[in-house]
Amino acid sequence: MRHTSKLGSPALLLGLAALFGPGCAAAANQNGGFYVDPNSNPAIWVRDHAADARASKIKSSIATKPMARWFGNWSGNVGTAVSSFVDAARAADKLPILVAYNIPGRDCGSHSGGGAGSPEAYRTWISSFASGIGSRRAVVVIEPDALAQLDCLAADQRSVRIGLLQYAAREFKMRAPNAQVYHDGGNASWIAADEMARRLNSAGVSDIRGFALNVSNYHTSVDSNRYGASVKAQLKAQFGYEKPFVVDTSRNGNGSNGEWCNPAGRKLGVVSQNSASGAEMLLWLKVPGDSDGKCGIAPNTPAGTFSPDIATRLIEGR
Questions:
Q1: 156 is catalytic
Q2: Is 93 an annotated catalytic residue?
Q3: Which of 208, 213, 259, 282 has the fewest beta carbons closer than 10 A?
């Protein structure tokens, strides 16, 4: 459906909720109204480096734009951290964007390796995450790469991971009923659409809003929309239902050059917004300027650490 800023009257929003479910109405009410995180990595860097010649550009182009906050084993009590973040967004009457990133064996032990220490610990963690949102509105992406990276796991560990993702979907459905929740569906050049549809279905995508594409990657929205449409078609053909999807546009302004780890020549994409076609939302999920790992144009910057050089290159497209 098309979302416009004119969808503001309570009567119309109630009608939308009745027709499409509460998630769609909530997004419609937040067109251009996603939450700007005042404590994002780029915002903190700008505050701490006000005299730096790059600060003004990073502030205007990145730090003042709505983007996701990622939660993982660095977040302390995740229920408290999530609740505080969502509370701040509600106070501002904006829609917060959150990413859950704590699956055991995260990133196959690569640059962003880590995660919960056991399946039991993860179940406790993700339940607390969902409870931290409660009845409030939010957009949530569950565990980037967790499904696309199944192949790096032994067979028994694959089934454990699928079970954990099923559990996460059920917990969000039960504990955060007004959140729009998306499993991660990889990107346009990774897993074939028919296989990704099978993985999404096995992970319980039927229990949540849909799936997210291009998280922390660079593929254009055109390519991501094409892939998303194929995954939707495969869900329908194989399992009899479709699901909407969202696309990470944080760094896809110049598309992909085939590299994923801090490649040169990439550019910021369109800011977080509702979409009239293809993806239902275009979102800054990866925080622009945060490193992918010690690689590419940031060989000494660990994953998740903000780099003003990466940020400036993304602003300038170089």
A1: no
A2: no
A3: 259
